[in-house]
Amino acid sequence: MSDSPSATDKPCPQCRRVLPLTEFHRNRRRADGLGFYCKACAAARSEASRRKRGIAPQRRSSTPVGDGLKWCPDCEQIKPLDDFPTTSTKASGRHSYCKPCHNARGKETAQRLYGGTREYHLRRRYGIGQKEFDELLAEQGGVCAICGASEPQHVDHDHRNGWVRGILCFNCNGGLGQFRDDQSRLAGAITYLRGTTWQRVLIHPGVYQMCSPTRGRPPSPSS
């Protein structure tokens, strides 16, 4: 009997066994779509790496976890899969921690590394911190760069290159987004506001017609 792998088998370079493809994790970055090591060896290597870096061993559920369920190591509860955030980086398609625990970990990381979630958000999305935000707002006189509303809190940036343009209030920032930063759309909106105030005009005793100043007064009907 030959020990060479078949189309349904794969050798593991760690344990040197030829195993079914189901014994390998999926990995879309590899040519064959499978992990380099079998599941058992991959878990052993991961655990050894965690110990070397001083990370506590991964905990496992003490009770069996059924289909459609997942165990959260932080709250130690078994929950439906929908209670776990989705991710494309794991074969299961779900993060290790349930949504409340996942969010709590994110806040803790933001607080530890950046001093708070706002600083983390500003740095991650716009490349500036609260200090740069305050300086830019001071240059604007402490008001929205468009309407002059006080205490604006929203960073406006050019979606084409990511450059920060100014600090805006909620309404102005949302308005630019709805108009897709398109100057022709904004100009069209200004033209529309200036010239399309519809009015009800009497064109005959008891007969009215809606008209706009841009179109002029409707002609009177012939007698």
UniProtKB/TrEMBL annotation:
Determine if Iron is one of this entry's keywords: no
Enumerate the GO terms in the molecular function aspect. Answer: endonuclease activity
Quote the Gene3D superfamilies the UniProt record gives: His-Me finger endonucleases (3.40.1800.10)
Q: Which InterPro entries does the record cross-reference, listed alphabetically?
A: Endonuclease_7, Endonuclease_7_sf, His-Me_finger_sf
Extract the Pfam families matched here. Endonuclease_7 (PF02945)
Q: Origin, by domain of life? A: Bacteria
**Which keywords describe this protein according to UniProt?**
Endonuclease, Hydrolase, Nuclease
The protein, known as: Recombination endonuclease VII
Organism of derivation: Micromonospora sagamiensis
